[in-house]
C-alpha cells in the first residue's frame, strides 16, 4: 500500500478521498489554488501545495505543477477525483513517466472510451448493445441527414467529443435537421474543439441507468446499477440505487454487458458504464443500450457504497497499489435502497443560475451522510462548480430511503447564499418520482410546479423581525418606558419585497408583531419561542441577513433605517430617529449653519452607534433631544429652518 498520495482535485471529492486514505493510514497531500488557500480539502490533508491562480486553467488543470508537487512531497501516487484531469490520457502518461502511479485506468483505456463514436464501435465488437444510429466518419450534412432518415425520427444529434449536454440536439422532423445540425456543430466546436457528431435514435421515454464496474486490468466485476434519470438539461439532480422497477433478469443482462465492456479495454479501477433504457414498456433485457463509459469515480458513487457496503475509494487505492480485486462477483450483495441529492448554490426561480456567497451558517442533519467540501464561513467561489454538498440516505426499502431523504433535506440549514434545496424537496415530494415512475423528461414536464418561489408566512416574517431587532435573546432592549410596552420598528426585505414590522415588547418573553393588518404573538417558554402557538423554526443571523430555516430556507435582509431616512423624512426639515434608541451625543445647536453630510447626532441602537447626518444645507432651528434621552422610532431630534422659496 502507498505511504502517501496526492489528490489532484478540490472540494467535496478531495475531502472524500482524503477521508478514506487517512483511515487506511495513507498520508494525503492536497493541492490548492489562490481561491482555495483556506479551503476544507486543504484542512483535510496532511500537507498542501499551492499550484497557481484561482481559475482552473491556472491551477487544477496544470498537470505539470501537480506532478511536481507530488514529487516534491514524496507522494507515490496521484488520485484525480472526478472532473479536471481525471479523464485526460496525456496526464496519465505524464504521471507514469514521472515514476508515479495514477489511481485510475490506463491512458489507453481512457482514449478508447474518450470519443463516443469509437467507443460505440468497440462496444459493438464486444457484444454490448448500442443504440441504433450512425457513428461513422462521413460528416457531410447530406450523408448525416440520410442516416437520420434510415434510423427514423425522432433522432438525437450528439457531439462525438461531448458531455454535459453540449453539442446535443433533439430533432423530431426531417425539415428541422439541417438547422439543428449547424447549431450542434457550432456548440461542439466551441466546447470541445471538435465539430464532429453522431446520430442516434431518440428513445421515447428514456431512463438513464448506469452500472458501476471495477477492474484490475484483466478481469472486472459489477457493483449493480444506479438510476440517474432525474435530470435537468442532461445534468443529474437526484440519483438512486438500485433502479426502481429493475428485474433480476435485466439486472443480470446489464451487469454482464457492463463487465464485457470493462474487460474489452483491460479496465483497471472504478468506472461506470452508462446505458440508455426504454422505459415505455417497463424494464426488459432487450430495452437497454450502451451510451458511454465514464473512466473515473462518479459523483453519485455513494449510493452504490450504501447498497453494497463497499468503500469504492478504498478499492481504488488497493487495486492501484497492485492488489487483486477485493471481492469476486459472487461475493457482492445488494441490500436496501439509497438516494443522493445534489445540493447546489443556485437561484432556481431565476433559471438555476449559479450563485456565490459566504456561508454564514451551514449544518447538515446527523441522520444522513453529507459529503461536502465547504464549511460555515467558506465562500462559494465563481471559479468552480457551486456544489455545497451531496446528501445521501439509505433505508431497507425505497419508500423508507425516500422518506429519510425528505427529512434530511428539511434538516439542511444553509445561510449566506441561495440554494436548490426547495427544488430538491419538491422533487422528493413529486408523486410520480415517489411511485418510481422516473424518466429523463420528468423535471422538464413539471418544471413550473417544481420551481415556484417560496412565500414566507406572516409568522416567518415576524420571526425575522424579532431576530433583526435582537429580541429573541432577551437582551437589554426589552425594557419598559413609563410602565408601557416598549415599541420597536424594523424594515425588512424578502426577495426584493420590502415590508415593515412594528413590535411591542411586553417583556423579554413576549412580543406582539404587527405586519400590515396582521398581528403575531411571540411567546417564549423555557428556551423555545412559539409564534401564534406554533413552535418557531430555527434561524441564523449574520449581519443584516436573517435566514429562517423553514420552507428550505428563507432569507430576509434588514433595511438600514438610515438609508430609508435619507430618502424620506431626513431629507426634509426634521431629522428623526430611524429606530428606538439612546441619544448618545448631539453636535448641533440652534442657529448653527450646517452642510449636507454634517454629523448632527449619534443614536445608539441595535448595539451599534449610528450617525445622523444633515440631508441638506441649512440652519438649525431647534434641537429637540438631549444626550442620554431614550427615544422612539420617528421621534424628532433636530429641526432645520424652512428653506426660502
What does this structure look like?
With 645 residues, this protein is of the alpha+beta class. It is 26% helix and 33% strand. The strands form 9 sheets. It has a 9-stranded antiparallel sheet, covered by helices on one side. An 8-stranded antiparallel sheet has the order 14-13-10-11-12-15-22-20, with helices on both faces. A 5-stranded parallel sheet has the order 3-2-1-4-5. Helix 12 (398-410) runs antiparallel to helix 13. The longest helix has 17 residues, at 248-264. The model is unreliable at 476-483 and 565-571 (pLDDT under 50). This is ATP-grasp domain-containing protein.
Topology:
Blueprint: E1 4-7, H1 11-23, E2 27-33, H2 40-43, E3 47-52, H3 63-73, E4 77-79, H4 89-97, E5 101-102, H5 107-114, H6 116-125, E6 133-134, H7 141-151, E7 155-159, E8 168-171, H8 177-192, E9 197-201, E10 206-216, E11 220-232, E12 235-241, H9 248-264, E13 268-278, E14 288-294, H10 301-308, H11 312-320, E15 337-344, E16 346-347, E17 353-354, E18 357-358, E19 361-363, E20 369-372, E21 379-380, E22 387-395, H12 398-410, E23 413-415, H13 421-428, H14 431-434, H15 442-445, H16 447-450, H17 458-468, E24 486-494, E25 497-507, E26 510-515, E27 518-525, E28 528-531, E29 534-535, E30 539-542, E31 545-548, E32 554-558, H18 561-567, E33 574-576, E34 581-586, E35 593-594, E36 599-605, E37 608-613, E38 618-623, E39 630-631, E40 636-640
Parallel strand pairs: 1-2, 1-4, 2-3, 4-5
Antiparallel strand pairs: 6-9, 7-8, 7-9, 10-11, 10-13, 11-12, 12-15, 13-14, 15-22, 16-17, 18-21, 19-23, 20-22, 24-25, 24-32, 25-26, 26-27, 27-28, 28-29, 30-31, 31-32, 33-40, 34-36, 34-39, 35-38, 36-37, 38-40
Helix pairs in contact: 4-5, 12-13
Domain ATP-grasp: 120-321
Domain Biotin carboxylation: 1-448
Pfam families: Biotin_carb_C, Biotin_carb_N, Biotin_lipoyl, CPSase_L_D2
Amino acid at each position: 500500500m502507498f505511504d502517501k498520495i496526492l489528490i489532484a482535485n478540490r472540494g467535496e471529492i478531495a475531502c472524500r478521498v482524503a477521508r478514506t486514505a487517512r483511515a487506511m493510514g495513507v498520508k494525503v497531500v492536497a493541492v490548492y489554488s489562490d481561491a482555495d488557500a483556506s479551503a476544507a480539502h486543504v484542512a483535510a490533508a496532511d500537507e498542501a501545495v499551492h499550484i497557481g491562480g484561482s481559475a482552473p486553467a491556472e491551477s487544477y488543470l496544470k498537470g505539470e505543477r501537480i506532478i511536481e508537487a507530488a514529487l516534491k512531497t514524496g507522494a507515490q501516487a496521484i488520485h484525480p477525483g472526478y472532473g479536471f484531469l481525471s479523464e485526460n490520457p496525456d496526464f496519465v502518461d505524464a504521471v507514469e513517466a514521472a515514476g508515479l502511479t495514477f489511481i485510475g485506468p490506463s491512458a489507453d483505456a481512457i482514449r478508447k472510451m474518450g470519443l463516443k463514436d469509437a467507443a460505440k464501435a468497440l462496444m459493438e465488437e464486444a457484444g454490448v448493445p448500442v443504440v441504433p444510429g450512425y457513428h461513422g466518419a462521413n460528416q457531410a450534412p447530406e450523408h448525416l441527414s440520410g442516416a437520420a432518415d434510415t434510423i427514423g425520427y425522432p433522432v438525437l444529434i450528439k457531439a462525438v467529443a461531448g458531455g454535459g449536454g453540449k453539442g446535443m440536439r433533439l430533432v423530431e422532423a426531417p425539415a428541422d435537421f439541417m438547422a439543428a445540425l449547424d447549431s450542434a456543430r457550432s456548440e461542439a466546436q466551441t466546447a470541445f474543439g471538435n465539430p464532429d457528431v453522431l446520430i442516434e435514435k431518440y428513445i421515447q421515454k428514456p431512463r438513464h441507468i448506469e452500472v458501476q464496474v471495477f477492474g484490475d486490468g484483466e478481469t472486472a466485476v459489477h457493483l449493480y446499477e444506479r438510476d440517474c434519470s432525474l435530470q435537468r438539461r442532461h445534468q443529474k439532480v437526484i440519483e438512486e440505487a438500485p433502479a426502481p422497477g429493475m428485474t433480476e433478469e435485466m439486472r443480470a443482462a446489464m451487469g454482464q454487458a457492463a463487465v464485457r465492456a470493462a474487460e474489452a479495454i483491460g479496465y483497471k479501477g472504478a468506472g461506470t458504464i452508462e446505458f440508455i433504457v426504454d422505459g415505455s414498456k417497463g424494464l426488459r433485457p432487450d430495452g437497454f443500450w450502451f451510451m458511454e463509459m465514464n473512466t473515473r469515480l462518479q459523483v453519485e458513487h455513494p449510493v452504490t457504497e450504501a447498497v453494497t457496503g463497499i468503500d469504492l475509494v478504498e478499492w481504488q487505492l488497493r487495486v492501484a497499489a497492485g492488489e487483486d480485486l477485493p471481492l469476486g462477483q459472487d461475493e457482492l450483495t445488494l441490500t436496501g435502497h439509497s438516494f443522493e441529492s445534489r445540493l447546489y448554490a443556485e437561484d432556481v426561480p431565476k433559471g438555476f443560475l449559479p450563485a456565490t456567497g459566504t456561508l454564514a451558517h451551514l449544518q447538515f442533519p446527523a441522520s444522513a451522510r453529507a459529503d461536502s467540501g465547504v464549511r460555515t464561513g467558506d465562500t462559494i467561489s465563481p471559479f468552480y462548480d457551486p456544489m455545497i454538498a451531496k446528501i445521501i440516505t439509505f433505508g431497507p426499502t425505497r419508500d423508507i430511503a425516500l422518506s429519510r431523504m425528505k427529512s434530511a433535506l428539511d434538516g439542511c440549514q444553509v445561510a449566506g447564499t441561495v440554494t436548490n434545496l426547495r427544488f430538491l424537496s419538491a422533487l422528493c415530494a413529486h408523486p410520480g418520482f415517489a411511485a418510481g415512475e422516473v424518466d429523463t423528461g420528468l423535471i422538464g414536464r413539471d418544471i413550473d410546479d417544481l420551481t415556484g418561489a417560496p412565500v414566507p408566512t406572516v409568522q416567518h416574517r415576524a420571526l425575522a423581525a424579532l431576530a433583526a431587532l435582537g429580541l429573541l435573546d432577551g437582551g437589554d432592549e426589552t425594557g419598559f418606558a413609563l410602565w408601557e410596552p416598549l415599541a420597536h420598528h424594523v424594515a425588512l426585505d424578502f426577495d426584493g419585497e420590502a415590508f415593515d414590522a412594528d413590535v411591542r415588547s411586553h417583556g423579554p418573553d413576549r412580543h406582539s408583531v404587527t405586519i400590515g393588518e396582521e398581528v403575531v404573538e411571540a411567546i417564549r417558554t423555557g428556551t423555545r419561542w412559539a409564534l401564534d402557538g406554533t413552535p418557531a423554526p430555527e434561524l441564523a443571523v449574520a449581519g443584516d441577513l436573517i435566514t429562517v430555516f423553514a420552507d428550505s430556507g428563507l432569507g430576509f435582509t434588514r433595511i438600514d433605517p438610515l438609508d430609508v431616512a435619507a430618502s424620506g423624512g431626513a431629507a426634509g426639515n426634521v431629522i428623526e430617529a430611524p429606530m428606538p434608541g439612546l441619544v448618545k451625543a448631539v453636535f448641533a445647536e440652534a442657529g448653527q449653519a450646517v452642510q449636507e453630510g454634517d454629523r448632527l447626532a449619534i443614536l445608539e441602537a441595535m448595539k451599534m452607534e449610528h450617525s445622523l447626518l444633515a440631508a441638506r444645507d441649512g440652519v438649525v432651528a431647534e434641537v429637540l433631544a438631549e444626550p442620554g434621552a431614550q427615544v422612539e422610532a420617528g421621534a424628532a431630534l433636530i429641526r432645520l429652518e424652512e428653506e426660502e422659496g
